[in-house]
Input
Amino acid sequence: MNLPSFLFERRFHVPKETTVQGNIMSEIKGIIGGIIIGDMNINADIVIKRSGTVNGNIHAKNVLIKGKVNGNIYCEGRVYVYKNAEVDGDIFATESIIDKESIVKGRLSQLHQSDQPVTAKGSAVREASTDKGIIRIDKSVPPADKSVQTWF
Output
């Protein structure tokens, strides 16, 4: 009998009916369906389900948000904010994808491959209105000796 490979994948799970108070550190993937009150430092991917809420900062490789995050997100890779998800904080990532009907109350800043934030000589801030709020996009101007990377 061949069992599905996802049964053997190492990951942690915080179920819908659970509240965790305190910081979480992990080297494996995680799925949050409940409430986290504290910072998360995950050296892997993290998924915040529709029922999930994180009240703290998130540091992870890739972040998929379907629920709510009240804190800043620091991501080495991609942050994906799904439809109807909410982020109340700044997003620092190499790539950010924000669905139309999601809410982001904070700044979006692109990281370069060196995982360091762009140091700005100047910046251009653009605000985009949506049905549910305002998204502020801060595109920092890199120093002359750095190559420019695009988001899309």
Notes: The chain has one domain: 11-140.
